[in-house]
Write a structure and sequence with these properties.
Blueprint (H helix, E strand, L loop, with lengths): L7 H20 L3 H4 L6 H10 L15 H11 L8 H22 L4 H24 L17 H24 L9 H17 L1 H16 L6 H4 L6 H22 L7 H9 L4 H22 L1 H13 L5 H24 L11 H15 L8 H16 L5 H9 L5 E2 L1 H10 L7 E2 L16 H4 L1
Parallel strand pairs: 1-2
Helix pairs in contact: 1-5, 1-6, 1-17, 5-6, 6-14, 6-16, 6-17, 7-8, 7-9, 8-9, 8-11, 9-15, 14-16, 15-16, 18-19
Length: about 450
Amino acid sequence: MFPRPPSILSYFIFFFISSVANFTLCETIYFEPLHSADQLYLPLFLKDIVTGLGIGHWYLPPSPYFFPDLLIYLILYPVVPFLYLPSVYGTIQMILVFFGIYIFLSKYTDQTRTFQFLYLLEILFIFFSLLGYITEDKPLPLVYFLTGAHHSTGFFFSLLLTLYLYSLLIDKDKKNRYPNSFLPLPMVFFFFFSFVLLYISDRFSFLVGVISFFVVRIWDGDLPFTERISYFRNQKFWILTFFFLLLCELISFGLRTIVSIPSSFQILFAYLEGREAIEILHLSGTYLWDFSKHIFYQGKSLLILLGFVLLGFTKFPKLNRHLLIVFFPVLLGLLLLVGRFTYLHPYPIRYLFPILFFGLLGVTWALVPRTKIVNPKVLTTLLLLLVGILWLLPFPREKTKVYFSGILHREVSYDLEKPIRFWTEGSRTPIPIDKDGKPYRWITGAYHTHLTE
């Protein structure tokens, strides 16, 4: 077992090795999805802002991912070479995730167990990444740990924000502080505007955070039931909620006057209009059946991870179990609404990412007791061994750059437009078109007056 609690140097070594491992993952296994058309939206959007082209010509996704995704890119932009932004972004995101987990676990367990957990989580993350690579999963399910502009960064931030808020409220209740208010006014403003930015940037992640908060609150066995639902009986809560939603919708409306952002609700209601309930149920069942077949044939590493989740579920922390129980039907419903009735995507696995995240955390926690007798040097050696295996994989950066830089067509398909512009660092600006040769205005900044005339 560990002879003594891990030192600061031990944590530094872990974060260094982990960062090297995750950067290598970004440059090998996850290189293609991290440099796909959807993923390159934010780097190119930011480049237009920085170079003075503005944003008025952009057709944005339904969730524009301004916060915190764009903010992180903005911080990285001056210090990271443009072509390395997606890989560095993924690496930094994992550092922040591990640091957040460290802070959270340190409040509830000892440093030794926290240290073991971090090592095991990184090892399992690399193991399932390699497994997905070997089984040729499409898409690779754990790539969303590293992506921006795919709900994952917003999910991490939303989860951290809600857990921090809940811990402050519990601390307030225990110490009987601020009896006539939720929190001190500066903290109220901090959380209010953080959630406003998250709402207008990524409603999906905002919703996940809200659900997480109330799952933790309502399932808190240390509180009487009347206190668990006390927020719903508080007039201030409903007033604050009303003004919050009003402000968010006004800001969202203002954004739509500046840039083109599709309205998911309008698309959804337009699709469902005139359809009978029996038809909707039939379409839903067919879609979920087809989705399950996609998982079976294209997500073998995901199936193995879910198998571990089922085997170790009873050993997961109580909070972890509760979140999985609640999120499974909720996220499956959101996946159905988005993938079948709104944007018609056959396999939008990213909407189940919170389940994968909590599942991987639970499996890691269940394995921690089995590593008590393992010397910490063994975990470090195993992690280094996995990094060595990753270094044996192909690094497609130069090959990819040559390929996209060599495409000279003025009109290209959606999946080529942003990669060409990215790899040429904006020197080439092709126009995306659909299969009928018509302009394809979906998540693109190509239709600028100076670029298209």
